[in-house]
Amino acid sequence: LTLENELHGALERNEMLVYYQPLIDLHSGHITAMEALVRWQHPTLGMISPAKFIPIAEANGAIVQIGEWVLRTACAQNRAWQLAGFTPIRISVNLSARQFEQPYLVEVINQILEETGLQASDLELEVTESFLMGDIERSVKTLKQLRELGIWLALDDFGTGYSSLNYLKRFPVNMLKIDRSFVQDVMSNPDSAAVTNAIIALAKSLRLSITAEGVETQEQLDYLRMQGCDEGQGFYFSCPVPADIIAPMLQKTS
Ligand code: G
Ligand code: G
Ligand code: MN
Ligand code: NA
C-alpha cells in the first residue's frame, strides 16, 4: 500500500492531529500566537511529518479537506482557550496553494469562524510567496477579501521564494516570517546575518510585523531582539506539541 492510498480516509479514521507551537513577543516575552501544525499519526508507521504527506495531499487534492479540518480544529481550540480564561492570542494556520485557489475559500473560512465563535482578528493565515506568484491579480484579490474580514496575513518562509519586492508591496499582508534557514546560522554566517537584517529593515519600512522562525538559542534570540525583530518562534521556546501540553504556558486574563 502506498502512502497516497493510506492518506485516503486518514481524516475519517481520526489519524490526523494538530500540534501547536507558540510565537513569542521578543520584548515582553508573552505568547502572542500559536502556529497550528498538522501531524499524521499512522497506525503502523507512527508519526508522519507534514513535510512528507502535505506534498502528496497537495498533488491529489486531499489537502483541501485536510486543510479545512486543520482550520476548524485550530479555530475551535483557540476559542476553547479563550473560554477557559486565557488571554486571547492569534491562531496561525498554514494555507496550501490548492486551498488558496479554492473559489469558496473565503466563504469556508467565514463559516468556520461563525461555527467556532472565533473572531477573525484572532486568526492568522500563513501563505507563501511562491504560490501567490502564480496568478498575482487573483492572489491580491483573495488576500484583500481575507483582510476585509479582519484576518491577519503572514508571508511564511520569507526569503526562500522568488521574492519580488515589486509584488511584495501589492500583497496586503501584515507580517513576514523570516525563514529558519537564515536564523539557523545567523551567529556564524555573516551572509545569513546580512539577509536577516535586510529582511527586518524591509519589514520595518513597509510597516510589517516581523517574526523569526527557528530560534534555537539564547544568542540568536538576543541578536534578533537587538536587530528589532518583533516575534520569535522555535525550539528555544517550545517545539510543536499537543494542545494540552501548551495550555500551561498560556496566561490567565485576571
Ligand atoms: O511541523 P513541521 O516542521 O513538520 O512542518 C513541515 C512543513 O509542513 C512546514 O512547511 C509547514 O508549513 C507545513 N505544514 C504543517 N502543517 C500544515 C498545515 O496544516 N497545512 C499546510 N498546508 N502545511 C502545513
Ligand atoms: O514552513 P513552516 O514555517 O510552517 O514550518 C514550520 C516547521 O518548522 C514546523 O514543522 C516545525 O517543526 C519546524 N520548526 C519549528 N521551530 C523549529 C526550530 O527551532 N528549529 C527547526 N529546525 N525546526 C523548527
Ligand atoms: Mn508556517
Ligand atoms: Na517557515
From TrEMBL:
Record-annotated EAL domain positions: 1-254
Q: What is this protein called?
A: Bifunctional diguanylate cyclase/phosphodiesterase
User: From what organism does this protein derive?
Assistant: Nostoc flagelliforme FACHB-838
UniProt keywords, alphabetically = Membrane, Transmembrane, Transmembrane helix
